[in-house]
Amino acid sequence: MTLRPLWPPPHVEVHGSVRAAMDLGDDIQLLEAWRAGDRRAADRLISRHHGLIRRTIRTKVPDQALDDLTQRVLTALVERRDQIRAGASVRAYVLVITKRAIADYYRRRKPEADQLAHSVVDLGAGPITLLLAQRESRLLLEALRTIQLDDQFLLELYYWEDLSAPELAQVFEAAEPAIRSRLRRAKERLRARVTELTESCPELADTLTDVDAWALKLREELRARYPALA
Q1: Does residue 218 belong to any structural domain of this protein?
Q2: Number of domain units in the chain
């Protein structure tokens, strides 16, 4: 039985930027072909978003959980592919599933905690094992992993995946104005955390004043050093 489309909720708009619409069109064609039984279309769609899923998970859970969580997300996508509303972003839905999988991973370990309101460090993720050459990159990644998980999700998708405000609204199932406000507050919290971490490193304080620029440099270093995540 085909499920009635349930996502995103009715209060969330599904329009987007011109660029997002172009990507969306191809994704939707593949999704519709998959729903009609085209296995090659399914493989292409899954392959297109596989790297995104792994990148999103990689900075938030211990190394040993990466493969299992990636598979959980892919399985959920297969099971729920009929729930996406017409015109919605497949990429955004993939990220919704990924976010839920990560939250569930920590919920099983700390059921008493509000997972998205805690940082992954507080939830027990342990030290990051990604090797980064730039000291500024290491510090900024540490800052991201010590702010609340919901903020980390939002900022990484904004800085590293170039999601538009409409797509972010779909991922977080919120109205666009609310997402813009949340993004502004998340940036403020990240800058405050960077300031705390650089108090003992005055030589870094000046170089990290432009957090936006360093976030983009961190993205490029991650993709250069770990092409499997690109």
Answers
A1: yes
A2: 1
DSSP state, residue 128? -
56-67 pLDDT, tens digit per residue, is 999 999 999 999
Q: Which residues of 13-50 are buried (b: 16+ CB within 10 A; e: fewer)?
A: ebebeeebeebbeebbebbebbeeeeeebbebbbebbe
Please answer whether residues 98 and 53 qualify as being in contact, where contact means their C-beta atoms are separated by less than 8 angstroms. yes
In a domain, 11, yes or no: no
Q: At what angle do helices 135-145 and 211-225 cross, to 10 degrees?
A: 100
Residue 171 belongs to domain spanning: 18-229
Q: Does residue 187 sit within a domain? A: yes
Cβ–Cβ under 8 Å, residues 158 and 183: yes
Domain-located, residue 7:
no
Indicate the pTM of the whole model: 0.87
Over the stretch 43-91, which tens digit does the pLDDT of each residue have?
999 999 999 999 999 999 999 999 999 999 999 999 888 888 777 889 9
Regions in the chain scoring below 70 on pLDDT: 1-5, 8, 10-11, 13-25, 205, 230
Using CA atoms, how far apart are residues 80 and 151, in angstroms rounded to an integer?
26
How many other C-beta atoms are found inside a 10 Å radius of the C-beta of residue 131?
8
Straight-line distance from the first to the last Cα atom of the chain, in angstroms, rounded to the nearest whole number: 36
Q: Which residues contact 56 (CB under 8 A, 6 or more apart)?
A: 95, 98, 99, 102, 153, 156, 157, 161
Q: The tokens of 157 are what?
A: 């998708």
